[in-house]
Amino acid sequence: MFRYNVHNVNILDVFFPKRCVACGRIGTYFCDACRVKIRPILDNERICPMCGRSAFGGVTHPNCRTRYGIDGLTSFFHYDGPVRKAVKALKYRYVSDLAKEFVGLIRIPEQVGNDSILVPIPLHGIRYRQRGFNQAEVLGRAVAQRLHIPVRTDILRRARATPPQAEIKKREDRIKNMKNSFSIHNSLFLIHNSRIVLFDDVCTTGATLRNAASALKRAGAHHIWAMTIAR
Ligand SMILES: [Zn+2]
Ligand SMILES: [Zn+2]
Measured in angstroms, how far is the CA atom of residue 93 from the centroid of ligand 2? Predict the structure, then answer.
């Protein structure tokens, strides 16, 4: 397998025809039959990013608010069926068209103002070099384009290598794994542009988002709305 980076033309897109991520049918990444199986998360299915319990519109419960916590969460789709397959496909292969087609299916949330900036959850340097791209950034760029807001990848960094969350079975261990795993750069920019859309591909326990939000808020961010493609 050869590697290519985000800024080059994607050679695989040129030589391989688009296939449905779920059933393999040639034509688009989501064929009509599979597209109807995609389940959007409705307003009354949204959850509080701090406790994981039901919260209308994804706004953090008043009782769950903390100084360095997340203010709300929007996840677009349930993590199953074609959505799960598309997220996995994007993890192992950089396909810009797939990211755009995927993000084209979302309904733009009202909670995000156009004064926000989108910050994708970074991969650790070692994993970034192995993979050649960060799928959260690829999807985040497509989302930011639809929201008409800028993307910054120079603010939030991984402070140390953490084992991939998927390799850790117990929820408590996953949460422990993420503690203090982010560092902040260019914090002056953050103080002057302090409404952040914190973006990741999937929200599982929310620990990654909470830890990143805490680092951003300690450095001066005022408002953080978490956003993920799936949950
Ligand atoms: Zn299909
Ligand atoms: Zn809550």
Answer: 35
